[in-house]
């Protein structure tokens, strides 16, 4: 299979840069008139698939909202992933997995091995046991043409306490993560397959993302306060690598299919303008 970075580039060029989060939390299910149980989640996901599967480059299901229903939730997630893939979309599972040794290897096998039932194109990962602890995940991604997005600079208020802490060499923890990701993408033609997660509301932190070489997943847009124009200020040298993620602002337009499509088209158009060639 072609490398994830190449497949992501092609999908974004064809369908636009938008990544849509699939977050069937209790409040959203209620807003859609659906029950907070497996049947409600299944109906929610089917509406999203029917409305958007052939229109969006990347979908990002949040694993936790399926896991809370046990095996039933896992079955719904597997079915949703399969339907989205059949419609030509890429699937980025937001699971933020991270561990060491055989455990992280098992996570990699579960999500990045095409022979497994929960196989996805890419996964989010936590590096705070050390970026090197994720080596089995990176290896599995490269083996099967998958991708990994590593948490680097998140928008949550607790993040800076760890991410902005200084190492003996003067770099922040976040910068060291970015630098290690950059090394993993050295030699990759075009967009690399190992990316970073950087929140849209971090502001000017002085971190250098210019040499990352891979995609940048950017949550925090829409309902969380980030705007398309913010992307030009935060990522002036990486705009072509930015994968902006919206959840609540898109899903809030549901459950009407036409409304979901209109909102998705509107946001995709705004993003394409914001991510055009820097002036």
Automatic annotation (TrEMBL):
Record-linked SMART domains: OMPdecase (SM00934)
Keywords from the named record: Decarboxylase, Lyase, Pyrimidine biosynthesis
Q: Which reaction does it catalyse?
A: orotidine 5'-phosphate + H(+) = UMP + CO2
**PANTHER family reported in the protein's UniProt record:** OROTIDINE 5'-PHOSPHATE DECARBOXYLASE
Species source reads Rhizocola hellebori
Q: NCBIfam families given for it? A: pyrF_sub2
The molecule here is called: Orotidine 5'-phosphate decarboxylase
GO MF annotation list: orotidine-5'-phosphate decarboxylase activity
Q: Which Pfam families match?
A: OMPdecase (PF00215)
